[in-house]
Write a structure and sequence with these properties.
The protein is of the alpha/beta class and 317 residues long. It has helices spanning 3-24, 27-37, 49-63, 74-77, 101-104, 107-113, 127-131, 153-172, 177-183, 188-193, 214-224, 243-252, 261-264, 278-288, 310-314, and strands at 43-47, 69-73, 90-95, 116-121, 134-137, 207-209, 228-233, 236-242, 271-273, 292-296, 304-309. The protein has a five-stranded parallel sheet with strand order 2-1-3-4-5, sandwiched between helices. Strands 6-7-8 form a three-stranded mixed sheet. The protein has a three-stranded mixed sheet with strand order 9-10-11. Strand 6 (207-209), helix 11 and strand 7 form a beta-alpha-beta unit. Helix 2 crosses helix 8 and helix 3 runs parallel beside helix 8 (153-172). The longest helix is centred in the first third of the chain and has 22 residues, at 3-24.
C-alpha cells in the first residue's frame, strides 16, 4: 500500500468537507460571536469523549486570547461541577450528534441556573439544537474514517470552527502581543515578548550612502539578511530602503544602473530605544504594518545602534 498517497487522499477528503462547511457559514456565526462578546460572565465549554477533548482545547484557546473561559466535562457537570457555572455565563455544549445523553442531561439544570446555551453540533435538527438558544452547525457529510465511525472530519470541523470563533473574538477585543505575553509568561513566545529590544536586535546595521548605486545597495541588503538598509549622508542617517522599495524601483526605473540610493529611499523611518520592551516594538510594527525598526540608544539619541526585525522576535529557538 502506498501510505503517502492514502494520506493525501485523507487530507483531500477532509479539506473538501471543510470547504463545504465554510461555504455554509452564515449569520448564525455572527450571532454567536456577538453573544459571547456581550456576555458578562465567562464562556463555559462542555463536551465528552472526542468532542470533549476538542472543547477543552477551545476553552484553553479562548482563555489565553482574552475571552474568559473554562472547560467542564459534561459527565462531571451533573455531579457537582455545575457549581462552576453562574447565570451570567454562556455555556457552549459541544456534541457532533446532538443526542449524547450526558450533554442533554445538563440542559435542564443549566436552564435552572439561568445561563444562555449555545449548541455546537453536527446535527442542526438534533434535540440539543432544538433546546439551545443559539446553534452553530459543524455538519459534515462524511468522516475520513473508512467505516464512517471514528470521529475524524467532524472533530477537525469542530476544532476549526472554534479557531474561527477565537480569532474573531481576539480581533474584536483588540487582543495584542502585550496581552499575549501577559497571559503566556511561561511559554517561549511569552517570555520572549517580555524581554527588551537590546536582547534581540542585530548590531550589524546595513548601511549605504545616498549616492550608492542600485547594485551595491541590493548587495548590502542581501548580505545582511534583514530585508532593508539604512541610508546615510556622511554620518547622518537620512532614510531607509526596504525590499518593497526595491520592488517599486524595478517597476519604476528603466535603467537601474543609473539609480542611486537617494532615488528609492524613504526619508522617514520608525525607530525604538534599546531599552524598550519587545511587546512595544511589536505594537509599533503592527500599527504601521512594517517588519523592521531602527534602534537608538535612548530617546534623545539619533544614532542607529541596531536593527530589530520581526524575525528576531518570533524566531526564539
Amino acid at each position: 500500500m502506498n501510505y503517502s498517497e492514502r494520506a493525501k487522499q485523507i487530507f483531500q477528503e477532509e479539506i473538501t468537507e471543510l470547504k463545504r462547511l465554510s461555504d455554509d457559514i452564515d449569520s448564525a456565526f455572527d450571532n454567536v460571536v456577538e453573544a459571547i462578546l456581550s456576555c458578562h460572565g465567562k464562556l463555559v465549554l462542555m463536551g465528552i469523549g472526542k468532542t470533549g477533548i476538542i472543547a477543552h482545547k477551545m476553552a484553553s484557546s479562548f482563555a489565553s486570547t482574552g475571552t474568559p473561559s473554562i472547560f467542564v466535562n459534561a459527565a462531571e457537570a451533573v455531579h457537582g461541577d455545575l457549581g462552576m457555572v453562574s447565570r451570567d455565563d454562556i455555556v457552549m455544549l459541544v456534541s457532533n450528534s446532538g443526542a449524547t445523553s450526558e450533554i442533554l442531561n445538563v440542559i435542564a439544570p443549566l436552564r435552572n441556573i439561568g445561563c444562555r446555551i449555545i449548541a455546537l453540533t453536527g446535527n442542526p435538527q438534533s434535540a440539543l439544537a432544538t433546546e439551545a438558544d443559539l446553534t452553530l452547525s459543524v455538519h459534515v457529510d462524511h468522516e475520513a474514517c473508512p467505516l464512517g465511525l471514528a470521529p475524524t472530519t467532524s472533530t477537525t470541523a469542530t476544532l476549526l470552527m472554534g479557531d474561527a470563533l477565537m480569532v474573531c473574538l481576539m480581533e474584536q477585543r483588540h487582543f495584542k502581543a502585550d496581552n499575549f505575553a501577559t497571559y503566556h509568561p511561561g511559554g517561549a513566545l511569552g517570555r520572549q515578548l517580555l524581554r527588551k529590544v537590546r536582547n534581540r536586535m542585530s548590531t550589524d546595521v546595513p548601511r549605504v550612502q545616498t549616492d550608492t548605486c542600485f547594485r551595491e545597495l541590493t548587495k548590502e541588503m542581501s548580505d545582511k539578511h534583514l530585508g532593508m538598509t539604512m541610508v546615510y549622508n556622511g554620518e547622518e542617517c537620512v532614510g531607509i530602503i526596504t525590499d518593497g522599495d526595491l520592488r517599486r524601483a524595478i517597476q519604476k526605473f528603466d535603467n537601474l544602473s543609473a539609480v542611486k540610493a537617494s532615488d528609492v529611499m524613504t526619508p522617514s523611518y520608525k525607530h525604538i530605544t534599546q531599552d524598550a520592551m519587545l511587546t512595544e516594538a511589536l505594537a509599533i510594527m503592527d500599527k504601521y504594518n512594517i517588519t523592521t525598526l531602527a534602534v537608538t540608544a535612548d530617546n534623545a539619541s539619533t544614532g542607529i545602534i541596531g536593527i530589530l526585525s520581526i524575525h528576531h522576535i518570533i524566531d526564539f529557538n
